[in-house]
Structures
1.
Amino acid sequence: MSEGIISAAVTSALHKALCKAQTDGQLRLAVWPSLVFDIPKRAEWGDLSTTVALGLAKREKRAPREIADVIASHLQWETDLFDHVNVVPPGYINLTIKRDQWFRVLTEIERQGIVYGDSTVRAGQKVLIEFVSANPTGPLHVGHGRGAAVGDAIANLLTRTGADVAREYYVNDVGTQVETLGKSVLMRMTQPSLEPECKDVPLPEGFYQGKYISDIAMAFVKSRSPTTMKSSEGAAIEAGQFAKDVLLQEILEDLREFNVHFDKVFEEHTLYDNGVVADALNVLRAKEYVYTLEEADWLATSRWGDDKDRVVRRANGQYTYFASDIAYHTHKFNRGFQQLINIWGADHHGYVPRMKAMMHALGHLEDSFQVSLVQLVRLVRGGKPVAMSTRSGEFVTLREVIDEVGVDAARFFFLMRRCDTPLDFDLDLAQKKSNENPVFYVQYAHARIASLFRMAQEQGINVPSSSDANLTLLGVQEELAMVKKLEEYPEVISESARCLEPHRVAYYLQDLAGLFHSYYYKHRILQADALALTLSRLVLIRAVQTVVRNGLIVLGVSAPETM
RNA sequence: GCGCCUGUAGCUCAGUAGGAUAGAGCAUCGGACUUCUAAUCCGGUUGUCGCAGGUUCGAUUCCUGCCAGGCGCGCCA
């Protein structure tokens, strides 16, 4: 179920009402309208409202108000579900749900527990999500961290909607950059720069500058006999391989610490070792999508909207990065994945059109490939941006951020904003233990509920099952508001998954936590002289706790019992 | 020059398969601790939804053109 039980019931009632209207000849309904409704902005407009009548007016050639009246007249019969049905000009149908119906939400959450919010909209779909894929030429920086958090959360969302999801990290270990990496290591070795005081001496432009290069150089020296220390071509390759392996392991270690795990680390060089690149290009050449011009091979991407055709093999015989990517994505499809999702830094957006073109060339729907572009992260401390520069190698690493604010805060902050807008990451705020800090605020709602349960336990009160509580005692406005919010959760998940937008979950959790904190302050939950009320309130807040936890799991943030 | 993203309250941002009087947090001002965690809560203030047209019963949302900011436009990866 991709929507809450109340929404589902209303959809079904609306469907029935339209059928009845059609059978009775009141509406033609040649084209069936989509049964959408939203939560009205104002409470006096009811719990839910639909604009189907407005949408139908043109096709039925009748006033929207009339159509709304017809539909409403049939909805009126659903007396178990609706308290009342109002038609408001120009043709809104406002629905007020019977109060008792709402309590079914609590029973449902109790029944489903950890899977509340899950759906089957992507059942049977094999999805490959490729993310991070940072080049193994240095440690992960904060931007990669955002990509990691976003990719992992999206993968969680897809799993929650029933997809069979594989997480993959693609390693560019072919080409000039590993060579440059090796040369950088050698240069640190051949200069007298292994001495600690020389680590800061900059290398010539175009080489990797970070201090980590010196560390790797030292490790490389230890692992090799001095005779192989010549700065020959062979030594550069060897040093590059060595450095790449070290850095990749460190990257994966950082990601593990960040609770990001991959099903597969896919190394680009295997595509060459196994002839996948040549095969993939041969297939495209057979379709006459690849042609030779001026001794280079081109893929005719401009046929499908790219600005120009792209070189796949250079005149010197070497394949381009794009050739690897063609092979890699061909290989993804060949492994049985139907939907490919890539999470990229926004600076790669210029690459998207040729990827879309590639899909056409490979004979797949353009929609089978989706990219989420993740914008930059700007670290802020004391209200001022933290200086970052990749050129000097003095960027802020993901590890430094994790060490400073913790995994939970880092992940939540990375997921707080829509990923295509730049993110200001406030390092001070992320560490605050107060309501200003959204992570803390949400986690604290979970912990506070756990604390209430402990307190109840001490008084000999266990949280009852919903069937053992009189839920109709839940009557105050704050309680109803929370239940309605809980009912929205499945749709929040399915919509976040559909749009690949995990930030919606973060916003939802802040709203829900806000409702809870406000409720907690206004109404006493544990009341010795009102046991029945206490029991029903415990059922309610357990449902809140379940949903907060489920949402945090999607974001990859822990749900603590105590704080 | 071409392309992509962004432009919503003082700040940071939600909201867009078109819907009713546009929201939240922060900041600011003023309140609430003999209390189940005050690690929290309550109230007040805040808008030409970048600008101009168009589509329509209705546009922050869709289309076109401008303006501003960011990013990208290699036989690099």
2.
Amino acid sequence: MATIRDVAKLASVSVATVSRVINKNGYVNKQTEIKVLESMKLLNYKPHTIARALSNKQTYTLALILPDITNPFFPELARAIEDTATKFGYSLILANSDSNKEKTTSYIESLTNRYVDGIIFASHELSLDKINQIKDSGIPMATLDRAVNLKGLPSIGVQNYEGGIMAVKHLLSMGCSKIGHICGPIYYHTSIERYKGYVDALEDINQFHPSYVVQGDFSIESGFEMANRLLSNHPEIDGIFAANDLMAVGALKALIRLKKKIPEEVALIGFDGISITSQMEPEISTIAQPIYQIGAMAVNCLIDQIQKKIPCEQSGQELELKLVARASTLKSKGHSSI
Amino acid sequence: MATIRDVAKLASVSVATVSRVINKNGYVNKQTEIKVLESMKLLNYKPHTIARALSNKQTYTLALILPDITNPFFPELARAIEDTATKFGYSLILANSDSNKEKTTSYIESLTNRYVDGIIFASHELSLDKINQIKDSGIPMATLDRAVNLKGLPSIGVQNYEGGIMAVKHLLSMGCSKIGHICGPIYYHTSIERYKGYVDALEDINQFHPSYVVQGDFSIESGFEMANRLLSNHPEIDGIFAANDLMAVGALKALIRLKKKIPEEVALIGFDGISITSQMEPEISTIAQPIYQIGAMAVNCLIDQIQKKIPCEQSGQELELKLVARASTLKSKGHSSI
DNA sequence: TTGTAGGCGTTATCAT
DNA sequence: ATGATAACGCCTACAA
């Protein structure tokens, strides 16, 4: 491997000059620049990223901490983040925290020692001391899903409340009148907002029944179980809004086993817009998050902080959701959507 | 951030001594060791990973190149790899190649410059020059799915041929007699082996019909399309073996739309054992790969190479598959499996 | 416009 | 058993 010194020697200049042409900073004569460039080609010289990192304190590496890449919500997000990071010349380190406090702490420590340039936190489990731990280390970070809402802590999220309303209104527009809700864990901000949207949309028309709400944990299994419970307690229910797509998938399974005609007898809508919803039969309607955009924004935000040292403008921004109406809600002559 | 020099000063020893206790090599007096250790605690000293990497030429970072983390096969693999890497103190860089030659090349270059300690290649697209490119760079690598079979190139795979036989035999044991096959792209080693297994199992009993085979591209969409084609050309088919689970999912969708009773009229089995198969209704039978184990072995193999400089023993090993019989093949009083 | 030299934080070779 | 000190490869004042 050729070093900067080899290049300097071959081009008969100093390493400083070579460094200048590499980094395009400082004055350098056009002639010498060409000479240097040629030498670099000749020697097939590539700057040593590690050495550069030591000197610069920039590793061009980002880290993504998420609960579990095996959860179908995250691959799409990870993809967006990796794509965008790569676009800017950054590598992406993946960390599965299992929403576990110890693992999270240990990852943060290890990433801090590796001097990653930024950390994206897509996990709900983010205690205040963890945040401060990162802040103290001086590493820029961004959180997703509004895990926390802190001054100076960039966070990208979606309009969960409005999404809840959209889901219910869609169900109503398809003729449902007894709408059940499988909500997520109540200690998640996202669950609560979606739930509130559900409540408000129904209270508006005096149709809210507390017993039509059951609580799952965002997993397929809980969706299956809760849909069964909902329908055994309230056979009259003709529409279900699941707080996320995975629970909707579980609910679909339950509905099919119960021999319910979908959407005629029971319509079903999820939330998130992950691709698995379109692979089911019938395809499941959903309130889609701009997942790719969220990931891309998070990276942009981080890189802004890293490079321009500016705080993220998108901080706290809530992106819009989009209704994706599919077979699980579209009755015969129902309306459609994009 | 405290440096090794700070620790040395506080403990009134030289940096060399501190380095010795950090790395537990060389002689060091018990007393001084304690003094040094205390100083480290006191200053909350953590060795600077980057500096260490520069000196050691070891970054404690592995890279995983795969086609697309969004493909449901890969998150499970990535999870296994990340888990195992972490266990050994390594971080994992994720790279989505989209099976694209240029992207792959550019990743390899970038990873090479980052001096990752090892690369795991889970992509089918691996031309010989790419391999040599990595080999020349001296970075240990491992490939999955027997993408290539080269002397000295560790490769972990499964018994695809036997798997094909298992799938067909299972279908036969459930009473199917007209078994179709949706095979994968013929330029993939895995596709061919599975196909051969299918052929041999049927030829054994004189039941092989070339026209019962159609070709997909491992995607859900192609599975959907090919199942439709298969059944429209051969309505008598009562069993389908899809060469991977994603195509099985697509096929399931097609069968349901065609109002086929599953498994009574048409039984269906996939290949891979990804979790999505158990989330469908009916649940899809499959020939399961030990995905987690594969990932773990790949990492072990790499770390063996890195640390002990020994070639991987598992090189070229083909792991066993396991039949997972579920509702999509289990007729009434059918047999079961683990 | 270009070169010299010190520093980034560790490791490892030699002495002592 | 311990300590100087030269690498590792690059960047960047500061000089020239």
